[in-house]
Structures
1.
Amino acid sequence: MSSIDAEAIRRAVEARGEEIIEWVQTLIRFPSENRYPDGNEGPAQKFVAEECRKQGWEVDVFSPEEIPGIQEHPSWLAGRNYDNDRCDVVARWPGQDDGKSVLFSGHIDVAPFEPDDWQVCRPYEPIIIDGRLYGRGAVDMKGGLAAGFWALRVLQDLGFEPAGDLLFESVVDEEFASGNGTLAARLRGHNADLAVVLEPTKMEICPACLGAFLGDMIITGTAGMAYTRTMPPSPIRGAARAVLLFDEWIEQWRAQNSHPLFVEAGKELNVVLWRINSTRPGEFNQMGTPLITNIGWIVWGHPGMTEEEFYRRFGTFWDEHASSDPILQPLELEIEPDFHYVRPWETPVDSPEVRAVAEAFSKYTDQTPSVGGAPFSCDLAIYGDAGDMPAVLLGPGGDNLHAPDEWVKIDDILNLTGILATLAVKWCDATPYNHS
């Protein structure tokens, strides 16, 4: 009698390697785009649910809107549609005893494929080149999602008998600052003693992530043309000035804030301006100075930053410039929050749960893992808060998230599969397995 060790798991992952990558390619071929307020996750989720049923796991399929009281929860984002079979899929491999449980979680929705500047492949026709798998959703986050599924499959191959429950889930509607799918699974009761969220961290263990403040800057001037009067104050000129001032803002924001898990290059707080328009909904754009210009913005913040404190500082910055800048002075400037605050989260680095993930990483790869903060926002706070779970992020490396020619490292998918399986064996207190 001997327990399942990392070497046995490594051999099992190797034996299934081609099948694992083919499974990721199958997932990519489903155009499970989130085009808020709608989404097209249904066909992909039906595939995932059926794959889980084939393994004999208990499978729960449900719409976020089915959960009693969910729309009153502070993390719920109103205005999303869940027609078209937009359902979460949660699979449970029941434990044989009262051992600790673990959840491997990811979202099935992907960003829209536009702008359509794909050069390597079409978005939903995945190809492999030099160890990279290309296609929309390859790294964000179908590669990680596949690793969570196949970690359980590999353990079944090895005759694993978990003492605690193993859970795998694929949730809907994570993109565009939602989190409603994740919230639904938590309130449905699909929680565990440890959650590993398979976002693309470049194989860094991330017990913390940034929060995201999202909003609109509405700059109002005077509409018209300078036919019989002086040129009216232009909100487009105001927007041009505001774009430059956002650079000043982010330098100030970085200088005012720090966090020990976000000190490396590439983990600085950032701002993204993602939308500029000069009409209100349903309004025709006159040929002349518009009445308004609207800038959509995102600003990231560290764990511990509250929404109230952010808007106090942000508002002070813009109030000062609106009253003193000669371009902005003739205009009216208003800040309006959009979507909702995507909260940051931090699970203590020295917690037993983070240590367990790090030990599994080392045991499987013979390498010391990097542990730090994820320089992006995601649903981690919902796992920790609504699910009351210690939660960490761990996922494969790649590039071009939310951009053309998205790709994921194939070796990372396979290594992640093995790491997760190794974690499950240790965490869920396996019954020893006889390899003879």
2.
Amino acid sequence: MNYTATIGLEVHVQLKTKSKIFCGCPSRFGAEPNTLVCPVCLGYPGSLPVINEEAIRLTIMTGLMIGSRINDYSKFDRKNYFYPDMPKNYQISQYDKPLCIGGSVDAELEGGNKKIGVTRIHLEEDVGKNMHFENSSGIDFNRAGTPLMEIVSEPEMESPEEALAYLLALKQILLCGNISDCNLEQGNIRCDVNCSVRPAGQKAFGTKIEIKNMNTFKGVLRALKYEIPRQISELEKGGKIMQETRRWSDDAGMTVEMRSKEYAHDYRYFPEPDLMPVVLSHKQVEHWRAELPELPAKRRARLVSQYGLPEYDAGVLVADKAISDYFEEVAKLSGNAKAASNWVMTDMLRCLSEHEMGICQVRVTPKALADLIRLVDGKTLNMPSAREVFAILFEKGGDPNAIVRERGMTQVSDTGALEAMMDKAIVDNPKSVADYKAGKAAALQFLVGQIMRLSKGKANPQLVGEMLKKKME
């Protein structure tokens, strides 16, 4: 029997605010445990929350970017549960009146795009972090109270690959809007996965299994590739899927049962009495709408039409807003968009990966890279020398023109000087000359390489090739 999988995702995103959602404590990763806390985020009796307006704005901006309907009236609720990392033993969240309703995300798949619906976006506070040691456990409450936006998808994904494509597209949108750093290693973006299977053709969904607290996109892919066949196997053996919560063990490569699944009534939601409802005016929402950035899909199409880039190049560049901003500045300053794209996509991205850096940290300014491109276009530098200059720029920064002058790296295009080098190469390599005359094209490249060696890499390889052909023919 054939089965259809149904997948829905609840994506939790830490918002890029300076302070926590209900107090003035810094929202910052990496501080000493329990140093970014106060009576409010520790849940002391008598402390009162005050909403962070920036958290509201970033949530609304996200909704606007994906086409959500913005509720002009929303409220906060208490979600009651008891767990060590929740200092108040309840979480301030949103239940029946969230900030954003509906919307969709375009997931890019091999066979084309798929529009995946979003049910709602609501705002809540993050919890602390349980820390387990060899003989003890502890809790770091620095994260407790960090603004956490939850984006709940419709159950419209049918494969692990669709789920991954949705997550990647959503991350691009969030980065584009400067909503979150989306650093998975720091827990900025996490995910709960809901999946079920049913016989092909059956309209009713199967029993849902939730996989909690996925903190890598690859983990989501691997978990679904395990869980969907597991459920199918259980049904084919005549078993029954029970609604439950499971966790993903990456080391074991399998999902493991945690507990039976809670329902909404288990949390005993009720309106948060210490917070006023959020009432938004049409004017305020439209003001935020006017601040929306250019979305990745639209920018990709513009890079193709405005700069003549291939679709592939444009897709790579818009995957990171900071990268595409950097590219556009280099392209405008250099006047050579394709060269700018090539440098950013190859040398720059390779160096960033090797040094585990972001584009905002590099010493190579857009102007410096543009100047380097112009040196190559003007035949002052050949590509091997240009790459040497780039390596220096990446390590130390500076002006490529000054580096070329100081190191005497100017490309040799003087035909008289090249003629002397050619004569030596021809005399020293008679077999290669004979091979070329016999029709072996590779022999020409060998001779060009010899001249490049003689010139210490400064010769113009294209000019050398043309002159060698004439000389030998």
